[in-house]
Design goal:
421 residues, Jelly Rolls, Monooxygenase, seven-stranded mixed β-sheet, 13 strands
Length: 421
Amino acid sequence: MHLRIDRVHCTEVSPDEFILRYEKPCKPVIIKGIPAAEGWSANKEWNSFKRLKKKLGRRMFKVGEDDDGYKVKVKFKYFLKYLEKNKDDSPLYVFDGNYDDDPVSKCLLQQYAVPSYFPDDLFRLVGEKHRPPYRWFLCGPARSGTCVHIDPLGTSAWNTVIKGYKRWVLFPPTTLRKVAKALDVQDDDEDDEAVHYFLDFLPRLRAALEKQTDPMAESGCRSTDIIEFTQGPGETVFVPGGWWHSVLNVTDTVAVTQNFCSRTNFLKVWKETRNGRKKMSVRWLKQLTEHYPDLAKLACKANAQDGFVMYDERKRRKEERARLKAEKEKDTTSESGSSISTFSSSPTTPAKEEEMKKARAKEQKRSKSNKHVSKAKLEKREKKERKRAATALTSEESASEASFSSADETQARRKMQKFKL
Protein backbone atom coordinates (compact mmCIF):
# COMPACT_ATOMS: atom_id res chain seq x y z
CA MET A 1 0.00 0.00 0.00
CA HIS A 2 1.26 3.49 -0.83
CA LEU A 3 0.15 7.08 -0.45
CA ARG A 4 -2.39 8.26 -3.01
CA ILE A 5 -1.97 11.50 -4.94
CA ASP A 6 -4.82 13.96 -5.53
CA ARG A 7 -6.22 14.17 -9.07
CA VAL A 8 -8.20 17.34 -9.79
CA HIS A 9 -9.56 18.85 -12.98
CA CYS A 10 -8.44 22.37 -13.85
CA THR A 11 -12.09 23.48 -13.69
CA GLU A 12 -12.30 22.35 -10.06
CA VAL A 13 -9.43 24.35 -8.60
CA SER A 14 -8.38 27.96 -9.24
CA PRO A 15 -4.73 29.15 -9.27
CA ASP A 16 -5.20 30.74 -5.83
CA GLU A 17 -6.69 27.54 -4.44
CA PHE A 18 -3.83 25.57 -5.95
CA ILE A 19 -1.30 27.71 -4.04
CA LEU A 20 -3.13 27.24 -0.72
CA ARG A 21 -3.88 23.54 -1.11
CA TYR A 22 -0.74 22.28 -2.85
CA GLU A 23 2.12 24.73 -3.45
CA LYS A 24 2.41 26.18 0.08
CA PRO A 25 2.12 22.78 1.83
CA CYS A 26 4.55 21.29 -0.77
CA LYS A 27 2.05 18.60 -1.75
CA PRO A 28 2.26 16.87 -5.17
CA VAL A 29 -0.89 16.85 -7.31
CA ILE A 30 -2.12 15.86 -10.79
CA ILE A 31 -4.14 18.51 -12.63
CA LYS A 32 -6.20 17.26 -15.57
CA GLY A 33 -7.32 19.10 -18.70
CA ILE A 34 -4.86 22.04 -18.85
CA PRO A 35 -3.77 21.67 -22.53
CA ALA A 36 -7.39 21.57 -23.76
CA ALA A 37 -8.65 24.28 -21.42
CA GLU A 38 -5.78 26.66 -22.21
CA GLY A 39 -5.77 26.09 -25.96
CA TRP A 40 -2.46 24.33 -26.60
CA SER A 41 -2.00 23.51 -30.29
CA ALA A 42 0.46 20.87 -29.06
CA ASN A 43 -2.60 18.72 -28.33
CA LYS A 44 -2.85 18.18 -32.06
CA GLU A 45 0.72 18.79 -33.34
CA TRP A 46 2.51 16.56 -30.80
CA ASN A 47 0.02 13.70 -30.88
CA SER A 48 1.26 12.61 -34.28
CA PHE A 49 4.86 11.53 -34.89
CA LYS A 50 4.21 12.18 -38.58
CA ARG A 51 3.51 15.86 -37.89
CA LEU A 52 6.51 16.15 -35.58
CA LYS A 53 8.75 14.57 -38.23
CA LYS A 54 7.55 17.04 -40.84
CA LYS A 55 8.31 20.02 -38.60
CA LEU A 56 11.44 18.82 -36.78
CA GLY A 57 12.82 15.94 -38.90
CA ARG A 58 16.12 17.62 -39.79
CA ARG A 59 16.73 19.18 -36.40
CA MET A 60 19.37 17.63 -34.08
CA PHE A 61 18.12 16.76 -30.59
CA LYS A 62 20.01 15.63 -27.51
CA VAL A 63 19.25 11.97 -26.76
CA GLY A 64 21.79 11.24 -24.03
CA GLU A 65 25.47 11.43 -23.09
CA ASP A 66 28.49 9.27 -23.91
CA ASP A 67 30.86 7.72 -21.36
CA ASP A 68 32.87 10.97 -21.21
CA GLY A 69 29.82 13.10 -20.45
CA TYR A 70 29.54 14.69 -23.90
CA LYS A 71 26.11 15.22 -25.44
CA VAL A 72 24.88 12.71 -27.99
CA LYS A 73 22.65 14.25 -30.67
CA VAL A 74 20.74 12.76 -33.62
CA LYS A 75 18.35 14.14 -36.21
CA PHE A 76 14.78 13.75 -35.09
CA LYS A 77 13.75 11.76 -38.18
CA TYR A 78 16.38 9.12 -37.36
CA PHE A 79 15.31 9.06 -33.72
CA LEU A 80 11.71 8.31 -34.75
CA LYS A 81 12.96 5.34 -36.82
CA TYR A 82 14.88 4.11 -33.79
CA LEU A 83 11.77 4.55 -31.63
CA GLU A 84 9.70 2.31 -33.93
CA LYS A 85 12.12 -0.64 -33.70
CA ASN A 86 13.54 -0.05 -30.22
CA LYS A 87 13.99 -3.04 -27.91
CA ASP A 88 16.73 -1.64 -25.66
CA ASP A 89 16.51 -1.96 -21.88
CA SER A 90 17.82 1.59 -21.58
CA PRO A 91 16.68 3.37 -24.75
CA LEU A 92 17.73 6.76 -26.07
CA TYR A 93 15.50 9.58 -24.88
CA VAL A 94 15.00 13.07 -26.33
CA PHE A 95 15.44 15.38 -23.35
CA ASP A 96 16.29 18.68 -25.02
CA GLY A 97 16.31 22.11 -23.38
CA ASN A 98 17.68 24.22 -26.23
CA TYR A 99 14.72 24.19 -28.57
CA ASP A 100 14.27 27.97 -28.33
CA ASP A 101 17.59 28.85 -29.99
CA ASP A 102 16.80 28.12 -33.65
CA PRO A 103 13.88 28.85 -36.01
CA VAL A 104 13.14 25.15 -36.64
CA SER A 105 12.46 23.98 -33.10
CA LYS A 106 11.28 27.38 -31.88
CA CYS A 107 7.83 26.46 -33.15
CA LEU A 108 7.50 24.22 -30.08
CA LEU A 109 7.31 27.30 -27.87
CA GLN A 110 4.32 28.54 -29.85
CA GLN A 111 2.42 25.27 -29.36
CA TYR A 112 2.12 25.35 -25.57
CA ALA A 113 2.12 27.91 -22.74
CA VAL A 114 3.07 27.89 -19.09
CA PRO A 115 -0.07 26.76 -17.21
CA SER A 116 -1.95 29.48 -15.35
CA TYR A 117 -1.14 27.73 -12.05
CA PHE A 118 2.55 28.59 -12.41
CA PRO A 119 2.70 32.27 -13.44
CA ASP A 120 5.87 33.19 -11.50
CA ASP A 121 9.26 32.77 -13.11
CA LEU A 122 11.64 34.78 -10.95
CA PHE A 123 14.80 33.46 -12.62
CA ARG A 124 13.78 35.32 -15.80
CA LEU A 125 15.13 38.48 -14.12
CA VAL A 126 18.74 37.42 -14.79
CA GLY A 127 18.12 36.85 -18.52
CA GLU A 128 18.08 33.71 -20.66
CA LYS A 129 21.89 33.58 -21.01
CA HIS A 130 22.56 33.63 -17.28
CA ARG A 131 19.72 31.56 -15.82
CA PRO A 132 20.05 27.79 -15.21
CA PRO A 133 18.43 25.33 -17.68
CA TYR A 134 14.73 25.20 -16.89
CA ARG A 135 12.55 23.77 -19.69
CA TRP A 136 12.72 20.61 -21.78
CA PHE A 137 10.91 18.95 -24.69
CA LEU A 138 10.61 15.21 -24.02
CA CYS A 139 10.09 12.37 -26.48
CA GLY A 140 10.90 8.80 -25.53
CA PRO A 141 10.06 5.16 -26.23
CA ALA A 142 8.78 2.67 -23.68
CA ARG A 143 11.34 1.80 -20.97
CA SER A 144 13.14 5.15 -21.26
CA GLY A 145 13.03 7.56 -18.35
CA THR A 146 14.96 9.38 -15.62
CA CYS A 147 16.64 7.99 -12.50
CA VAL A 148 15.82 9.19 -8.99
CA HIS A 149 16.76 12.83 -8.45
CA ILE A 150 15.79 16.13 -6.84
CA ASP A 151 15.25 19.12 -9.11
CA PRO A 152 18.11 21.65 -8.92
CA LEU A 153 18.35 24.75 -6.71
CA GLY A 154 15.22 23.91 -4.71
CA THR A 155 12.96 24.67 -7.69
CA SER A 156 9.54 23.11 -8.16
CA ALA A 157 8.42 21.62 -11.49
CA TRP A 158 5.43 20.86 -13.66
CA ASN A 159 5.28 18.12 -16.29
CA THR A 160 2.52 17.76 -18.91
CA VAL A 161 2.06 14.65 -21.08
CA ILE A 162 0.55 15.10 -24.53
CA LYS A 163 1.00 11.57 -25.87
CA GLY A 164 1.50 8.27 -24.00
CA TYR A 165 1.80 7.23 -20.35
CA LYS A 166 4.43 7.74 -17.63
CA ARG A 167 4.93 5.90 -14.34
CA TRP A 168 6.07 8.05 -11.40
CA VAL A 169 7.46 7.46 -7.92
CA LEU A 170 7.93 10.27 -5.38
CA PHE A 171 9.63 10.34 -1.97
CA PRO A 172 9.11 13.13 0.61
CA PRO A 173 12.00 15.57 1.23
CA THR A 174 12.83 13.92 4.57
CA THR A 175 13.92 10.73 2.77
CA LEU A 176 17.64 9.94 2.95
CA ARG A 177 19.48 10.02 -0.36
CA LYS A 178 20.68 6.41 -0.13
CA VAL A 179 17.11 5.29 0.57
CA ALA A 180 15.52 7.16 -2.35
CA LYS A 181 18.22 5.81 -4.68
CA ALA A 182 17.80 2.30 -3.21
CA LEU A 183 21.56 1.98 -2.80
CA ASP A 184 21.33 -0.63 -0.05
CA VAL A 185 19.11 -3.02 -2.02
CA GLN A 186 21.00 -3.23 -5.31
CA ASP A 187 24.12 -5.14 -6.26
CA ASP A 188 27.24 -3.46 -7.63
CA ASP A 189 26.83 -5.10 -11.04
CA GLU A 190 23.21 -3.96 -11.50
CA ASP A 191 22.43 -1.01 -13.75
CA ASP A 192 20.60 1.90 -12.14
CA GLU A 193 18.45 2.68 -15.18
CA ALA A 194 14.82 3.78 -14.71
CA VAL A 195 13.37 0.49 -15.92
CA HIS A 196 15.45 -1.53 -13.44
CA TYR A 197 14.59 0.86 -10.65
CA PHE A 198 10.84 0.38 -11.07
CA LEU A 199 10.91 -3.35 -11.77
CA ASP A 200 13.59 -4.48 -9.30
CA PHE A 201 14.85 -1.91 -6.81
CA LEU A 202 11.59 -0.27 -5.76
CA PRO A 203 9.89 -3.53 -4.64
CA ARG A 204 13.02 -4.45 -2.66
CA LEU A 205 13.12 -1.01 -1.09
CA ARG A 206 9.49 -1.22 0.04
CA ALA A 207 10.11 -4.61 1.58
CA ALA A 208 13.19 -3.32 3.42
CA LEU A 209 11.31 -0.30 4.80
CA GLU A 210 8.46 -2.49 6.05
CA LYS A 211 10.93 -4.58 8.06
CA GLN A 212 12.41 -1.56 9.85
CA THR A 213 11.34 -0.94 13.43
CA ASP A 214 11.50 2.86 13.08
CA PRO A 215 11.74 3.69 9.35
CA MET A 216 11.43 7.45 9.93
CA ALA A 217 14.52 7.42 12.14
CA GLU A 218 16.47 4.99 9.95
CA SER A 219 15.41 6.08 6.46
CA GLY A 220 13.51 9.36 6.69
CA CYS A 221 10.29 7.85 5.34
CA ARG A 222 7.92 4.92 5.66
CA SER A 223 6.85 2.60 2.88
CA THR A 224 3.40 4.18 3.03
CA ASP A 225 4.93 7.67 2.41
CA ILE A 226 6.08 6.69 -1.08
CA ILE A 227 3.77 7.94 -3.84
CA GLU A 228 3.34 5.90 -7.05
CA PHE A 229 1.00 6.73 -9.92
CA THR A 230 0.56 6.72 -13.70
CA GLN A 231 0.22 9.96 -15.68
CA GLY A 232 -1.77 9.99 -18.91
CA PRO A 233 -2.38 12.38 -21.85
CA GLY A 234 -3.56 15.85 -20.88
CA GLU A 235 -2.43 15.47 -17.26
CA THR A 236 -0.01 17.83 -15.53
CA VAL A 237 2.03 16.71 -12.51
CA PHE A 238 3.17 19.28 -9.94
CA VAL A 239 6.39 18.25 -8.14
CA PRO A 240 7.27 20.51 -5.16
CA GLY A 241 10.93 21.36 -4.57
CA GLY A 242 12.88 18.86 -2.50
CA TRP A 243 10.83 15.78 -3.46
CA TRP A 244 12.86 12.83 -4.80
CA HIS A 245 11.32 11.39 -7.98
CA SER A 246 11.89 9.02 -10.86
CA VAL A 247 9.90 8.63 -14.09
CA LEU A 248 9.51 5.69 -16.47
CA ASN A 249 7.87 5.92 -19.90
CA VAL A 250 5.38 3.04 -20.04
CA THR A 251 4.63 3.71 -23.74
CA ASP A 252 6.04 6.01 -26.42
CA THR A 253 5.52 9.49 -24.98
CA VAL A 254 5.72 13.17 -25.85
CA ALA A 255 5.73 15.71 -23.02
CA VAL A 256 7.03 19.08 -21.85
CA THR A 257 8.37 20.07 -18.42
CA GLN A 258 9.61 23.22 -16.71
CA ASN A 259 11.26 24.14 -13.40
CA PHE A 260 10.34 27.41 -11.72
CA CYS A 261 10.90 29.73 -8.78
CA SER A 262 7.79 31.46 -7.45
CA ARG A 263 6.97 33.75 -4.55
CA THR A 264 5.86 30.68 -2.60
CA ASN A 265 9.13 28.71 -2.87
CA PHE A 266 11.42 31.75 -3.16
CA LEU A 267 13.20 31.47 0.18
CA LYS A 268 14.11 27.81 -0.37
CA VAL A 269 15.35 28.54 -3.90
CA TRP A 270 17.30 31.62 -2.74
CA LYS A 271 19.25 29.67 -0.12
CA GLU A 272 20.15 27.00 -2.68
CA THR A 273 21.04 29.49 -5.40
CA ARG A 274 23.31 31.75 -3.31
CA ASN A 275 25.54 28.69 -2.79
CA GLY A 276 25.03 26.85 -6.07
CA ARG A 277 25.14 29.86 -8.42
CA LYS A 278 27.25 32.43 -6.54
CA LYS A 279 27.77 34.94 -9.36
CA MET A 280 24.26 34.61 -10.74
CA SER A 281 22.77 35.19 -7.28
CA VAL A 282 24.51 38.60 -7.13
CA ARG A 283 22.88 39.61 -10.41
CA TRP A 284 19.57 38.15 -9.27
CA LEU A 285 19.57 40.09 -5.98
CA LYS A 286 20.15 43.37 -7.84
CA GLN A 287 17.19 42.68 -10.13
CA LEU A 288 15.01 41.61 -7.21
CA THR A 289 15.85 44.87 -5.44
CA GLU A 290 14.57 46.79 -8.46
CA HIS A 291 11.50 44.70 -9.37
CA TYR A 292 10.58 42.80 -6.19
CA PRO A 293 11.95 44.81 -3.22
CA ASP A 294 9.97 42.71 -0.73
CA LEU A 295 11.68 39.52 -1.92
CA ALA A 296 15.07 41.23 -1.96
CA LYS A 297 14.52 42.27 1.67
CA LEU A 298 13.60 38.67 2.50
CA ALA A 299 16.81 37.43 0.85
CA CYS A 300 18.98 39.94 2.73
CA LYS A 301 17.30 39.02 6.02
CA ALA A 302 18.02 35.33 5.39
CA ASN A 303 21.66 36.17 4.61
CA ALA A 304 22.00 38.12 7.86
CA GLN A 305 20.39 35.36 9.95
CA ASP A 306 22.61 32.69 8.40
CA GLY A 307 25.76 34.84 8.48
CA PHE A 308 26.04 34.39 4.71
CA VAL A 309 28.28 36.78 2.74
CA MET A 310 27.50 37.26 -0.95
CA TYR A 311 30.12 36.54 -3.62
CA ASP A 312 30.69 40.18 -4.58
CA GLU A 313 31.15 41.23 -0.94
CA ARG A 314 33.62 38.40 -0.29
CA LYS A 315 35.55 39.45 -3.39
CA ARG A 316 35.60 43.10 -2.27
CA ARG A 317 36.86 42.14 1.19
CA LYS A 318 39.57 39.96 -0.29
CA GLU A 319 40.77 42.77 -2.56
CA GLU A 320 40.75 45.21 0.35
CA ARG A 321 42.88 42.86 2.47
CA ALA A 322 45.33 42.48 -0.42
CA ARG A 323 45.55 46.27 -0.85
CA LEU A 324 46.20 46.89 2.86
CA LYS A 325 48.84 44.15 2.93
CA ALA A 326 50.63 45.69 -0.08
CA GLU A 327 50.60 49.14 1.53
CA LYS A 328 51.98 47.75 4.79
CA GLU A 329 54.81 45.95 2.97
CA LYS A 330 55.60 49.15 1.07
CA ASP A 331 55.78 51.21 4.29
CA THR A 332 57.99 48.60 5.97
CA THR A 333 60.40 48.57 3.04
CA SER A 334 60.58 52.37 3.02
CA GLU A 335 61.28 52.55 6.77
CA SER A 336 63.93 49.81 6.77
CA GLY A 337 65.79 51.42 3.90
CA SER A 338 65.88 54.85 5.51
CA SER A 339 69.15 55.86 7.23
CA ILE A 340 69.20 59.54 6.46
CA SER A 341 71.02 61.72 9.03
CA THR A 342 68.68 63.57 11.38
CA PHE A 343 68.96 67.31 11.15
CA SER A 344 68.57 69.67 14.09
CA SER A 345 65.18 71.09 14.91
CA SER A 346 66.35 74.68 14.44
CA PRO A 347 64.61 76.79 11.80
CA THR A 348 65.58 75.57 8.33
CA THR A 349 67.02 77.89 5.74
CA PRO A 350 66.57 77.48 1.97
CA ALA A 351 70.13 76.21 1.75
CA LYS A 352 69.50 73.65 4.51
CA GLU A 353 66.26 72.49 2.89
CA GLU A 354 68.11 71.97 -0.38
CA GLU A 355 70.80 70.03 1.46
CA MET A 356 68.17 67.82 3.12
CA LYS A 357 66.46 67.25 -0.20
CA LYS A 358 69.72 66.15 -1.82
CA ALA A 359 70.46 63.84 1.10
CA ARG A 360 67.06 62.16 0.80
CA ALA A 361 67.45 61.75 -2.95
CA LYS A 362 70.91 60.28 -2.48
CA GLU A 363 69.67 57.84 0.17
CA GLN A 364 66.70 56.77 -2.00
CA LYS A 365 69.05 56.21 -4.92
CA ARG A 366 71.36 54.15 -2.74
CA SER A 367 68.43 52.15 -1.31
CA LYS A 368 67.10 51.50 -4.79
CA SER A 369 70.50 50.40 -6.09
CA ASN A 370 71.03 48.18 -3.07
CA LYS A 371 67.97 46.14 -4.05
CA HIS A 372 69.69 45.06 -7.23
CA VAL A 373 73.09 44.01 -5.83
CA SER A 374 73.93 40.79 -4.10
CA LYS A 375 74.89 40.58 -0.44
CA ALA A 376 78.49 39.74 -1.33
CA LYS A 377 78.82 42.80 -3.59
CA LEU A 378 77.28 45.00 -0.90
CA GLU A 379 79.82 43.81 1.70
CA LYS A 380 82.67 44.33 -0.74
CA ARG A 381 81.47 47.86 -1.48
CA GLU A 382 81.20 48.72 2.24
CA LYS A 383 84.71 47.31 2.92
CA LYS A 384 86.12 49.40 0.09
CA GLU A 385 84.45 52.56 1.45
CA ARG A 386 85.84 51.89 4.97
CA LYS A 387 89.36 51.41 3.52
CA ARG A 388 89.08 54.64 1.55
CA ALA A 389 87.96 56.50 4.66
CA ALA A 390 90.86 55.08 6.70
CA THR A 391 93.39 56.08 4.03
CA ALA A 392 92.02 59.61 3.96
CA LEU A 393 92.28 59.89 7.76
CA THR A 394 95.92 58.66 7.74
CA SER A 395 96.84 61.24 5.10
CA GLU A 396 95.36 64.03 7.17
CA GLU A 397 97.26 62.92 10.29
CA SER A 398 100.57 62.71 8.36
CA ALA A 399 100.09 66.19 6.94
CA SER A 400 99.39 67.55 10.40
CA GLU A 401 102.50 65.89 11.89
CA ALA A 402 104.63 67.20 9.03
CA SER A 403 103.52 70.76 9.65
CA PHE A 404 104.29 70.52 13.38
CA SER A 405 107.82 69.08 12.69
CA SER A 406 108.67 71.92 10.30
CA ALA A 407 107.77 74.54 12.91
CA ASP A 408 109.95 72.90 15.61
CA GLU A 409 112.95 72.75 13.29
CA THR A 410 112.74 76.47 12.52
CA GLN A 411 112.55 77.38 16.21
CA ALA A 412 115.63 75.21 17.01
CA ARG A 413 117.77 76.92 14.33
CA ARG A 414 116.92 80.32 15.73
CA LYS A 415 118.05 79.24 19.22
CA MET A 416 121.35 77.90 17.90
CA GLN A 417 122.11 81.16 16.06
CA LYS A 418 121.37 83.10 19.24
CA PHE A 419 123.67 80.80 21.27
CA LYS A 420 126.56 81.32 18.79
CA LEU A 421 126.25 85.02 19.07
